[in-house]
Design goal:
Chain lengths: 408, 722
């Protein structure tokens, strides 16, 4: 059986050497790693959730440090922490559920207050309920809660000490099981995010429209293909996305799928934009304020779109949603890549050149939320200003800063 | 030589069949953790080169991290000098327990060259398939897959393609004739179609501005491309035969000078070397202080991405990239009034005092830098103390060095471990200071960086202690001449070439002036395109020398031919053998067949003269006899009119100078030669007309033979009339 540390170190090495790239692949691998961490973690009968949270957070800090640029890692770690908290809470509520079977959100708060205050994890989890849970969260959590409540209603009844001990053990096992189930669902969500987003394509892409995109994004590609499959006829203009020129690859794939495709240089975007009906792009990360971190050149595209009042639509899986704000100091916004992508090394240098030529090759742009018209995620289209709400659905406020908690 | 190499072929043939299976074996690499040079002295007396920090991470970490990311699964690290330190380091840094990446060390204390190392590895039978051969000071981010694929494909077609060399474009400076890595200009001839390497010369200095290529290169290949703007990355993809080749040729020491040139020149068993050029990825080897400087700067400028300071690639502490290429570790103490310029790396736990300025430098971990210090283009390693008011320019400062108040380092200084520089002491440019005594100078630059050599090295353990006392009395802190090894005048001449400091402007101007003067003297030099510049600086001198050389050569050649001929006469050697011998002489002295004809004729005449004679008549008879005997030999070389004229001229010269006895017989002998059909009338007529414009003194023999010539002319006219 592989040990946790070995798995973690292996993944850290992969992350730090940039062997895993792309938000989706990274998210999936992170979630899988955390799933095995949860399943391998030994849990004490008392307060298992707190132990689990500490373990996951410790590993999360390591993973984030390995590649601070890939924000999806931190997102998934926070999602898993949130899952643990939620599951723990749902177990607690279901335990007390025999007293009050109708587990409504308003009652939960009162139950929490009655509950043993030494259980700090529960208390921490309770904090997340200080704010009213969204309708979506309620809908999501309903089936999960239904299952445990049924079991516990049947098992509870005896008052003896042993009974309660066995109960605790069972509860620990149950927690683990539930958390793993929930992480499996999260992995499934990550896997299916492209399809979920692509399903919405027909609502946004209309007949004979001209769509502009920059660089290459699998989400955007699936989005276009889905619209094509629904017999929409439209034209895609692909800005090549210097210096990595991933736009070239995207354009080739689009053409092979029978879409009308035009490739333009990045610098021709402004000239093209007046003919464009909509800009649809994939991004690297979505920040809490609705701004996005996207491949370099995107801000220029967004500004051009704004100038001509063309909608700037971002397609992004929910795993790209990052609970931090772009001004947070711990957010490493950019990745300075090798200048070799811009210039061939050998041609550039003479030995005795005076001042050294400086070549800067940033990987990403930050596009402010004012420039983003619509964010399309797996669960539908949202206004950038709605992001904070989604964040409160998917993350617990306690986990926003992973680092600070570890020092306590 | 030929028999010796027989063994390897047998192995190669067998391996060919197993080639397909070999392709499945894990990818292996050999790292030579010893450069077998002394370029990094005196630092390497105390620490092996591969462990020297390069932007705050040991060089070998870059090599290993690159190999790991390039998909190499098994690495053999060959340790020689300071092997214990290397093994200890690898042990400590967890390289030994990486998943899917096994690192094995091979230790030896008596290898003195790369050749020895490879022979030793061959004996261990650990290499099972194609392998990557690099030294432990290679920094690269190239992907090996493409090069490996090409190599394997070539191997499938031709099992003699034993090696693929990685090269990269890098134009040498037209002034200093050095690449930016401080290596000598490299000349290569590559077949542009197949990328086969046909010629390799990295020591152009020895050639005095000339390169000679084998003519066969031009006849055997439809096109060749001659390149001087490539850099050898010293990354080789080798087939197992390479190891056996080293074993078979036990005199091979240097990878390039012996092995590559050996294969190219001697054409051993038809083994071929190919090249693979990389364009966008980075690969370079730290060969000297200048490349240390250049590669450090490249790393800071992120050309080696992802092997850069802010990416946690291995063992290096994470630093944060700030604006303008500033890298700062999280825990540093920095005064608000200090200025840290662009492209600077500051390591963990370093403190920087007030009004200190640091630019283009790398500062290691745990250094304490005082106030009003200026550091420009320096490499300060770990735990260095620099007191207030010090000035450092383009220097390397090793671990544990202390610089007292106001000390100054001029460009190119290297301070080895734990050196203490006294108050206000000025270390002159290009000095290398070490606490260890330099081992005795050896002629070869292939000598070993060896701890064992330290039997001759005097250690001064109480050095720094005593210095503090000295410090109060005197100003200098480096009183002991043994410890303070200033570069001698002769050394300094070349020192700037490989120093960590940039090439000083006055040096450039100096070289430029020399080049310009030569260019003016030699107009052709100025017209040569840059890639065709084969060192115009020595052309003028050479051409004079060459003229002398040719004269000398022809005299020696004549003597040799004469000696050969005489021996032939004495030992009664057949003509064919004489022709063979003379031909080989002709080739070795690079003479024409006309020269041979002249020399042989001279020898024949000399023979006739040496025979006993009393009167000119008898002499004439001797000549007739000699000519009859050696007619065939003479005819062999007299294939055209030019050669015949040469013979007449030679004869004339003889009559005038060495053998005056012949002068009365000139016409007679000439006539005889004509009769014997050794010399045709055209040649005589041409000779006569050639001499027409000459001075009177030269015309003596023309006048003598006037009648004969007249007769010849008439005879030919008659023939025409017929």
């Amino acid at each position: 059986m592989p040990d946790i540390e070995g798995l973690v170190n292996d993944f850290v090495a992969k992350l730090s050497k940039r062997k895993v790239e792309g938000s989706q692949a990274t998210s999936r691998l992170t979630a899988e790693l955390l799933r095995s961490v949860v399943s391998l973690q030994r849990l004490p009968p008392t307060n298992p959730a707190a132990v689990l949270i500490e373990a996951v957070r410790g590993i999360g800090v390591k993973l984030v440090a390995a590649n601070p640029v890939e924000l999806a890692v931190g997102n998934i770690v926070r999602r898993v922490l949130h899952i643990i908290r939620e599951e723990d809470l749902s177990l607690l509520t279901s335990k007390t559920g025999d007293l009050d079977l109708s587990a409504a959100s308003d009652d939960e708060r009162t139950i929490e207050q009655d509950y043993d205050p030494t259980q700090s994890a529960a208390a921490a989890a309770a904090k997340s309920f200080v704010r009213p849970p969204s309708l979506h969260a309620l809908l999501e959590n309903m089936p999960d809660k239904a299952v445990p409540s049924n079991i516990y209603t049947s098992s509870s009844g005896g008052d003896s000490e042993e009974k309660s001990k066995a109960d605790k053990l069972a509860r620990t096992r149950k927690l683990k099981h539930d958390v793993i189930e929930a992480i499996n669902m999260l992995i499934e969500d990550i896997d299916t995010c492209h399809e979920l987003i692509a399903e919405q394509a027909v609502e946004h892409i209309h007949q004979n429209e001209v769509i502009l995109t920059l660089g290459s994004s699998r989400t955007a590609f699936e989005f276009f293909c889905a619209a094509k499959e629904k017999k929409r006829s439209f034209r895609v203009v692909v800005a090549e996305g210097a210096p990595r020129y991933q736009g070239h690859a995207l354009a080739k794939e689009l053409v092979s799928r029978g879409l009308q495709t035009t490739v333009v240089t990045d610098s021709a975007v402004f000239a093209m934009i007046s003919r464009v009906n909509m800009v649809i792009v994939g991004v690297h990360a979505v920040m809490a304020n609705g701004g996005v971190i996207a491949p370099v050149g995107m801000n220029m595209v967004a500004l051009a779109a704004q100038k001509h009042a063309v909608p700037f639509v971002v397609v992004a899986g929910i795993h790209k949603l990052c609970p931090s704000y772009p001004h947070n100091p711990e957010v490493c916004l950019n990745d300075m890549r090798s200048p070799a992508e811009l210039l061939e090394f050998g041609r550039l240098f003479g030995v005795d050149s005076g001042a050294p030529l400086q070549v800067v090759n940033p990987g990403f742009d930050y596009v402010a939320p004012e420039l983003v018209s619509l964010l399309i995620t797996d669960i539908g289209g949202h206004n950038p200003s709605y992001m904070y709400r989604l964040i409160s659905d998917y993350y617990s406020a306690d986990d926003f800063d992973l680092q600070r908690r570890i020092h306590k | 030589m030929g028999a010796k190499k027989g063994g390897s072929k047998g192995g190669g043939g067998g391996a060919e069949v197993a080639e397909e299976e070999l392709a499945r074996t894990p990818l292996q690499a050999i790292i030579l953790a010893d450069s077998f040079t002394t370029k990094f002295r005196p630092i390497t007396l105390e620490r092996p080169k591969v462990l020297l920090p390069l932007v705050n991470a040991p060089m070998i970490d870059y090599t290993l991290a690159w190999l790991e990311s390039a998909g190499v699964e098994e690495v053999f690290v060959f340790c020689c000098a300071h092997s214990k330190q290397v093994i200890d380091y690898l042990d400590k840094s967890n390289w030994f327990d990486q998943p899917n990446f096994s690192v094995t060390t091979i230790e030896s204390h008596n290898a003195i060259s790369a050749g020895d190392a490879l022979r030793l590895i061959y004996e261990q039978h650990v290499i099972r398939g194609d392998f990557i051969l690099v030294s432990g000071d290679t920094v690269s981010n190239m992907s090996l897959s493409q090069a490996l694929k090409e190599h394997k494909e070539r191997r499938r077609k031709d099992s003699n393609a034993v090696m693929t060399m990685v090269i990269k474009q890098s134009k040498p400076s037209p002034i200093t004739r050095q690449s930016r890595l401080g290596t000598e200009e490299l000349f290569m001839v590559i077949d542009p179609e197949t990328k086969q390497l046909l010629y390799y010369e990295d020591r152009a200095d020895n050639l005095k501005g000339y390169l000679s290529l084998d003519k066969a290169l031009l006849t055997d290949n439809t096109s060749i491309s001659f390149q001087n703007d490539k850099q050898d990355c010293y990354i080789d993809i080798c087939s197992p035969e390479v190891l056996s080749l080293f074993t078979d040729n036990f005199d091979y020491q240097h990878l390039r000078r012996d092995f590559v040139k050996g294969l190219l020149v001697d054409d051993i068993m038809g083994y071929k070397i190919y090249t693979h050029e990389i364009h966008s990825s980075y690969a370079a080897r730290i060969d000297n202080y200048r490349s240390y400087d250049t590669i450090s700067k490249d790393i800071i400028q992120r050309w080696t991405y992802p092997l850069v300071p802010d990416v946690h690639f291995f063992g290096n502490s994470a630093t944060k990239l700030e604006r303008q290429g500033m890298y700062r570790a999280p825990e540093i103490k920095q005064s608000h009034s200090s200025k840290i310029g662009p492209f600077t790396v500051i390591g963990t736990g370093t403190s920087i005092g007030n009004s200190t300025e640091i630019s283009n430098s790398v500062i290691g971990e745990g250094c304490s830098i005082g106030s009003n210090v200026t550091i420009e283009g320096c490499y300060v390693w770990n735990n260095v103390t620099i007191e207030d008011g010090c000035k450092l320019k383009h220097s390397i400062v090793c671990d544990g060095v202390t610089m007292k108040y106001g000390a100054t380092l001029e460009p190119g200084v290297v301070l080895s471990f734990k050196v203490v520089v006294g108050r206000n002491f000025l270390v002159p440019a290009y000095s290398k200071v070490s606490l260890l005594q330099q081992p005795l100078k050896q002629d070869s630059d292939e000598e070993l960086e060896y701890a064992d050599n330290s039997s001759g090295i005097m250690e001064v353990p109480s050095f720094s202690g005593t210095l503090d006392q000295l410090n109060e009395e005197e100003k200098t802190e480096l009183p002991n001449s043994q410890e303070y090894e200033a570069i001698s005048e002769g050394g300094q001449e070349e020192e700037w070439r490989h120093s960590v400091a940039p090439v000083p402007v006055d040096k450039l101007v100096e070289i430029m002036q020399i080049t310009n003067e030569v260019d003016i003297a030699n107009e052709d030099g100025a017209l040569l395109p840059p890639s065709g510049e084969l060192g115009p600086d020595s052309i003028t001198n050479d051409s004079n020398e060459d003229a002398e050389d040719i004269r000398d050569d022809s005299i020696i050649f004549e003597r040799e031919v004469e000696a050969t001929f005489q021996r032939a006469v004495e030992e009664d050697v057949t003509e064919d053998h004489i022709i063979l011998e003379v031909n080989s002489l002709r080739l070795s002295y690079n003479m024409t067949s006309a020269d041979c004809a002249g020399a042989l004729f001279y020898s024949v005449m000399k023979l006739a003269l040496d025979a006993p004679h009393d009167s000119p008549n008898e002499l004439y008879k001797n000549v007739v006899a000699a000519v009859r005997k050696w007619k065939k030999l003479l005819k062999y070389y007299l294939s055209s009119i030019d050669e015949e004229i040469e013979v007449i001229l030679k004869f004339e010269e003889m009559c005038l100078e060495s053998t005056r006895e012949y002068s009365p017989l000139f016409v007679q002998i000439l006539h005889h030669l004509y009769d014997q059909e050794i010399i045709q009338e055209e040649a005589i007529l041409d000779w006569a007309s050639e001499k027409e414009g000459a001075e009177e003194s030269d015309k003596v023999f023309v006048k003598q033979s006037e009648k004969f010539i007249q007769w010849l002319k008439e005879a030919s006219e008659e023939e025409d009339e017929d």
